[in-house]
Amino acid sequence: EAGVVQSPRYKIIEKKQPVAFWCNPISGHNTLYWYRQNLGQGPELLIRYENEEAVDDSQLPKDRFSAERLKGVDSTLKIQPAELGDSAVYLCASSGWSGSANNEQFFGPGTRLTVL
Amino acid sequence: AQTVTQSQPEMSVQEAETVTLSCTYDTSESDYYLFWYKQPPSRQMILVIRQEAYKQQNATENRFSVNFQKAAKSFSLKISDSQLGDAAMYFCAYREAGNMLTFGGGTRLMVKP
């Protein structure tokens, strides 16, 4: 069974440019998460989807960040325009329904973004 | 808000020896879950071990075990017979049912041959 797939693995852009990250969760997983991991720190949640609905986006900087999961399967996270401080690893994870006490989040390999 | 603290930025262990990584957390809840994740240079977060707060028995997975002290809000990870492949960043994480993972800042484990 394939795990969580993310692309690209690496992205280097200049500030003020747009960038997009793509995630395909494990088949059958209703819940999809986007995390940001700054260098030397633990991941922090940006947004959580239950199927196609964003149910927790309180940590998403909405002035420049957007996300979508139109058909409740794969998801795209976009930054426009990117700033120097956006340099980080962006991790995607998926799980069964997050209301279940016994779910486990499976993580993708992440996208390392460098903003110059 | 829940917080998770890992006070050891780096730890080092000799191959085949035992090492313990520390984690403390803050919560007012009684029902929650604690996790240790491993993140090698490939960046893939891998679940190492989990503990349900309502269980008094400490979780064990092969060479990995935890010391869960609920009253002290402490959740340490013991790695026995350390192997070179254990070298990675280790993250302690907290989760309430239905809520998100809150991660600690991580501990970098180095294994010396």
Folded structure, characterized:
The complex is a heterodimer of chains A (116) and B (113). Chain A has 116 residues and is mainly beta. Chain A has no helices and 11 strands. Chain A is globular and about 40 Å long. Chain B is an all-beta fold. The radius of gyration of chain B is 13 Å and the shape is globular. At the A-B interface, strand 5 and strand 9 of A face strand 6 of B.
Keywords, please?
heterodimer; A: 116 residues; mainly beta; 4-stranded antiparallel β-sheet; 11 strands; globular; B: 113 residues; 6-stranded mixed β-sheet; 12 strands
- What does the largest sheet of chain B look like? 6 strands, mixed
State the total count of DSSP E strands of chain A: 11
**Number of helical segments with 4 or more residues of chain B:** 0
What overall geometry of chain A do the principal axes of the alpha carbons give?
Answer: globular
User: Biggest interface in this structure?
Assistant: A-B, 23 and 20 residues
- Which regions of chain A have little confidence, pLDDT < 50, spanning 5+ residues? none
Radius of gyration of chain B: 13 Å
Mean pLDDT of chain A: 92
List segments of chain B where confidence is low: pLDDT < 50 over at least 5 consecutive residues. none
Strand fraction of chain A: over 45%
What count of helical segments of chain A does DSSP give? Answer: 0
* Secondary-structure-derived class of chain B: mainly beta
Cα(first) to Cα(last) distance of chain B is 41 Å
Proportion in helices of chain B:
under 10%
| Alpha carbon gyration radius of chain A | 13 Å
Care to count the β-strands of chain B?
12
Return the string of H and E elements of chain A.
EEEEEEEEEEE
